[in-house]
Specification:
It is built from 15 helices and twelve strands. It is α/β, with parallel strands linked by helices and about 300 residues long. The site of 1,3-dihydroxyacetonephosphate has 10 residues, from loops.
Length: about 300
C-alpha cells in the first residue's frame, strides 16, 4: 500500500525534529510557502544575520541560499549550521571570484571594498565592510567621503546606492540573474490593467525598472511599506516567494507578481531548491553542514561585525 506524504505531515515531522535537535529554522522571504510556514523567523538577509548571531539553539537550519548559511556560520561558529540543499547557490555570489577580487585590490591599493552580503565567505574575507539591500545606503554613508569605494558584486544595487548617496563608486560587473529579467515595459503594461497599484521593486532590478517604481527597498522593507501604504494593490517586483509573506502580513490587500517579458511569476531556481522533504532529511542527518576554513571565517567576520555595529 502506498502512503501519500502530505505537506502537513512533512511540516509536522520538521517541527518534531526541530524539537529533538534543539534547532531553530531561519527562512528567507523567497522560500516556498510551506517552508516559511514552519520557520521560526522569516525575513531578509539583514534580519536573518542578526537572528543567526543571537540564536542559542544547537542547530540552525538555514532555509535560504548558500551565502546566507555561510554568514550564519561566520557569526555563530559554535552552532551546527545546515542548509537543506547545498546546491542552493546565488548568481551574484558566482559573479565575484575571490582570486579576481584579490588581484583587483592589489592593483588598487587604498580603495575601500564594500561587499553586498550576496557573496562567498572567501570574498567577504577580502572586504572592508558588508552591506545588505536593507542597509547599503547607511553603510556607504558611514565611509569617509574622501575614500574611493569599490562596490561588489551587484552593479544594479551599487548604481541605486550611488543615486541615493550622491557618491561615486567603482562597480563590480555582477548582477542577479532573476532580478534582471523584470522589464519596465512588462511592468508598464501590467500597470495599465491595475492603475491603482503601487509598484514596489528590489534594488537588484535594472535602472529602468527602478525608475518606474513607487518604492525601491529590501524585501523586509516591502512588508512595512505595503502595510503602512493606503494603496489596496501592489505590483511586487522581486522573487515571487515574497508574495506569500506579504499576503500573510497584509490581509485584505492584493499583491501581483512583477512580470518579465515572458512570465508572470519570476522565481529564483536556487531559492526553490529547498523543500520540506530536504528540511526533514537535513534535520535527521544534520547534513549538509556548512563547514568553513577558520582563517577565512575569522577574516570574514570583521566586515560583517562592522556592518552589524551600524544597527539593524
Ligand atoms: P534582501 O534579503 O536584502 O531583501 O535581498 C534579497 C536578495 O538576496 C536578493 O537576491
Amino acid at each position: 500500500m502506498s502512503v501519500t506524504v502530505t505537506a502537513a505531515s512533512l511540516a509536522e515531522r520538521v517541527r518534531e525534529l526541530k524539537r529533538l535537535r534543539n534547532a531553530v529554522i531561519l527562512a528567507h522571504n523567497y522560500q516556498i510557502p510551506e517552508i516559511q510556514d514552519v520557520a521560526d523567523y522569516v525575513g531578509d538577509s539583514l534580519g536573518l544575520s542578526f537572528k543567526a548571531k543571537e540564536s542559542d539553539a544547537d542547530v540552525i537550519l538555514f532555509c535560504g541560499v548558500h551565502f546566507m548559511a555561510e554568514t550564519a556560520k561566520i557569526v555563530n561558529p559554535a552552532k551546527t549550521v545546515i542548509l537543506p540543499d547545498l546546491e542552493a547557490g546565488c548568481s551574484l555570489a558566482d559573479s565575484c571570484d575571490a582570486a579576481a577580487l584579490a588581484r583587483w585590490k592589489a592593483d588598487h591599493p587604498g580603495v575601500v571594498v564594500v561587499a553586498y552580503i550576496n557573496c562567498t565567505a572567501a570574498v567577504k574575507a577580502l572586504t572592508d565592510i558588508i552591506c545588505t539591500s536593507g542597509n547599503a545606503v547607511r553603510v556607504v554613508n558611514s565611509i569617509p567621503r574622501d575614500k574611493q569605494i569599490l562596490f561588489v558584486p551587484d552593479q544594479n544595487l551599487g548604481q541605486w546606492v550611488m543615486q541615493e548617496t550622491g557618491r561615486e563608486m567603482i562597480l563590480w560587473p555582477g548582477a542577479c540573474s532573476t532580478h534582471v529579467l523584470f522589464t519596465h515595459k512588462a511592468i508598464f503594461n501590467l500597470k495599465q490593467q491595475h492603475p491603482q497599484a503601487k509598484i514596489v521593486a528590489h534594488p537588484e532590478c535594472l535602472p529602468a525598472v527602478r525608475m518606474v517604481a513607487d518604492e525601491v527597498c529590501s524585501t523586509e522593507k516591502m512588508v512595512s511599506y505595503c502595510r503602512s501604504s493606503p494603496a489596496p494593490e501592489f505590483i511586487i517586483v522581486t522573487e515571487a516567494g515574497m508574495l506569500h509573506r506579504l499576503k500573510k502580513e497584509c490581509p485584505g490587500k492584493t499583491f501581483i507578481p512583477g512580470p518579465t517579458d515572458s512570465c508572470h511569476c519570476n522565481e529564483c531556481s536556487f531559492m526553490k531548491k529547498n523543500t520540506l522533504e530536504k528540511c526533514v532529511a537535513a534535520l535527521e542527518h544534520l547534513a549538509p553542514e556548512i563547514i568553513l576554513d577558520e582563517h577565512i571565517r575569522r577574516r570574514a567576520l570583521v566586515p560583517i561585525e562592522r556592518m552589524m555595529s551600524l544597527g539593524r
